[in-house]
Design goal:
Layout (H helix, E strand, L loop, with lengths): L26 H8 L10 E6 L18 H4 L4 E3 L6 E3 L3 H4 L5 E7 L6 H10 L12 H8 L10 E4 L16 E2 L23 H17 L15 H11 L1 H6 L7 H5 L5 H15 L3 E5 L9 H26 L6 E6 L3 E2 L14 E2 L3 E6 L7 E3 L16 H12 L6 E3 L5 E3 L13
Parallel strand pairs: 1-7, 1-8, 4-12, 5-6, 5-7
Antiparallel strand pairs: 2-3, 4-11, 8-11, 9-10, 13-14
Helix pairs in contact: 1-7, 4-12, 10-11
Length: about 425
C-alpha cells in the first residue's frame, strides 16, 4: 500500500498545501471545485473592502456639525480635495484623494443583525432562509473566462467575507489566511511550499506520479488514494511552480517608495498585496478591516485605533491603483453592514453608538465611477435618508454595472430554480455621470 512520504505528504497529496479558510479546502481541491481553467469573462477587475462591525456614518463620511450635541459627537468635518465634499477630521489622507471616490449617503435597509446585514451588503439581495445568495466575487468568477491559469481568480485577504451561495463552493475565494508583513515575502498556504519542499522536488514528484499513473491506471477507478494527477492538480502545481504566482504574492518586491504609503499595519499591507494581485491578473480581491462595533467608547476607539489604519490603507489602495494605471479598470466597493445610531448612548463615560441600518454610507471608486462627488443625502440628524434612499440592492446593481455584468442576468440553482443576480435594485446613474 502507498501511504505517506518521509516528509509527511501522501503520494497523491503532495500538492495539498494548507486549508482555504473555514472550508478546509486544499489548493488542489479548490481548483478542482472552481474549475479555474474554465472561468469566463474578460471584464474589469474588482476589489471589495468589508468593514465588519458597522462603521458610524456620522463620524466618518456623513458628519452633522449642526445637529444637537447628543447626536453630532466630538468629531469635526474637514474639507477634501473635492469641491464641496467634507468628511471626518480623522480621515485626512482620504480627504486628499476624495476626487478618486464617490460617497453614497442615505443608504438604508432594515437588518440590524451583523450576519444578516453583512449577507445583504455582500450580495445585494435581502437574505432568505431558503436560499443563500452568492457574493460579488463568486459572480465575477462565474462570469469571467480569461483568468490566468497559474493564478487563482478570486483571493480574499485574509479570509472570505462573501459566501458563494447557491453557485457552490467551487466559486469560493482562495483565502490567504493572514495579512502580509512589511518588507517580507508573503507565505501563502497553497502558494508557497512548506516542509522543506523545493520547486525542483515538486517537479520530480510530478514526473514520478505520471509514471505511477501508467502503472496503476487500472486501479484508479477503485482506489481514491491512487486518484490520478488530474488537470486540477496540474493547475495546483502550475500555481506553485509559477514564478508569476510567487511574485504576485511577494510584496517585498515592491519599491520602497511605492510601499511606504501603505504603512506597516495589517490592513495597509493587505491593500498593498491587493494592488499587486490585481496588477498580476487576479480578477477579484476582498479585504476586510474590523473594529467598527463601537457600542462603547465610540470616539476614542475610532480616533485612536480604527480610523488611522483605515485612512492610511484605503487612501494608499486608491492612490496605488492610480499610480499603477489600474484604477480606471478596477471597480472598488467599500462598505460595512449598517451604520450606527445617530443618538449617542450612555453605555460608557463618553458614550457609544449601536446598530443602525436605517442610515449608512458606502464608497465606490474606479472603473466608470466619477469620483469627487456625494450621491444621496441623510436628514439633519442622519437618522434616515432625506429623500429617496439608496438600497444595498441599488449599490449592488451599480457595482455589477461598473464591472460590466448585467445584474438582471438569470442563474439557476441545482433544482432548476431561476434566480436573477440581483433581485431588486437599479444602478445609481449619478455614479457614472
Amino acid at each position: 500500500m502507498i501511504h505517506e512520504t518521509c516528509d509527511g505528504y501522501r503520494r497523491r497529496d503532495f500538492l495539498r498545501v494548507g486549508a482555504l479558510g473555514a472550508t478546509g479546502l486544499t489548493l488542489a481541491n479548490y481548483l478542482q471545485l472552481a474549475d479555474a481553467g474554465e472561468v469566463k469573462g474578460g471584464l474589469r477587475s474588482a476589489i471589495f473592502v468589508s468593514l465588519p462591525g458597522g462603521p458610524s456614518h456620522m463620524d466618518t463620511f456623513d458628519l452633522k456639525p449642526d445637529a444637537p450635541k447628543e447626536y453630532r459627537g466630538t468629531f469635526n468635518p474637514i474639507k477634501t480635495n473635492a469641491s464641496g465634499v467634507e468628511i471626518s477630521e480623522h480621515l485626512p489622507q482620504l480627504a486628499q484623494c476624495a476626487d478618486k471616490f464617490a460617497i453614497l449617503r442615505g443608504v438604508s435597509h432594515t437588518l440590524a443583525a451583523h450576519r444578516l446585514g453583512r449577507e445583504y451588503v455582500a450580495t445585494g439581495n435581502r437574505p432568505l432562509a431558503s436560499l443563500q445568495y452568492p457574493g460579488y466575487g463568486s459572480v465575477v468568477v462565474k462570469e469571467t473566462t480569461d483568468a490566468p491559469r497559474d493564478l487563482p481568480p478570486y483571493v480574499s485577504i485574509p479570509t472570505g467575507a462573501q459566501p458563494p451561495g447557491y453557485l457552490g463552493i467551487k466559486y469560493a475565494a482562495l483565502n490567504t489566511g493572514a495579512a502580509p508583513r512589511p518588507n517580507q515575502p508573503f507565505t501563502v498556504r497553497g502558494i508557497s511550499l512548506g516542509g522543506g519542499l523545493t520547486i525542483t522536488e515538486v517537479e520530480k514528484r510530478s514526473s514520478l506520479l505520471k509514471d505511477l499513473d501508467t502503472t496503476f491506471r487500472g486501479l484508479e477507478k477503485q482506489d481514491q488514494l491512487l486518484d490520478g494527477l488530474d488537470r486540477f492538480s496540474q493547475q495546483a502545481q502550475a500555481i506553485i511552480t509559477s514564478s508569476r504566482s510567487r511574485e504576485a504574492f511577494d510584496i517585498s518586491q515592491e519599491s520602497p517608495e511605492f510601499a511606504k504609503q501603505f504603512g506597516d499595519q495589517p490592513f495597509g499591507q493587505s491593500c498593498l498585496l491587493a494592488t499587486r494581485l490585481i496588477e498580476s491578473g487576479v480578477g477579484f480581491v476582498t479585504l476586510s478591516t474590523g473594529g467598527w462595533d463601537t457600542h462603547q467608547d465610540n470616539f476614542t476607539r475610532l480616533k485612536d485605533r480604527v480610523l488611522p489604519p483605515f485612512d492610511e490603507g484605503l487612501a494608499a489602495l486608491l492612490n496605488g491603483l492610480d499610480q499603477k494605471g489600474l484604477l480606471a479598470s478596477t471597480a472598488v466597493f467599500v462598505t460595512g453592514e449598517f451604520g450606527r445610531t445617530p443618538k449617542i448612548n450612555s453605555r460608557s463615560a463618553e458614550g457609544g453608538r449601536d446598530h443602525y441600518p436605517r442610515c449608512m454610507c458606502m464608497l465606490m471608486a474606479g472603473g466608470g465611477v466619477r469620483g469627487g462627488q456625494v450621491i444621496g443625502e441623510s436628514d439633519d440628524k442622519a437618522t434616515g435618508p432625506a429623500n429617496e434612499g439608496i438600497s444595498p440592492d441599488d449599490a449592488a446593481a451599480s457595482f455589477f454595472r461598473n464591472i460590466g455584468i448585467d445584474h438582471t442576468k438569470e442563474y439557476h440553482t441545482e433544482t432548476g430554480r431561476p434566480i436573477t443576480i440581483v433581485r431588486n435594485g437599479s444602478p445609481v446613474e449619478k455614479l457614472f455621470g
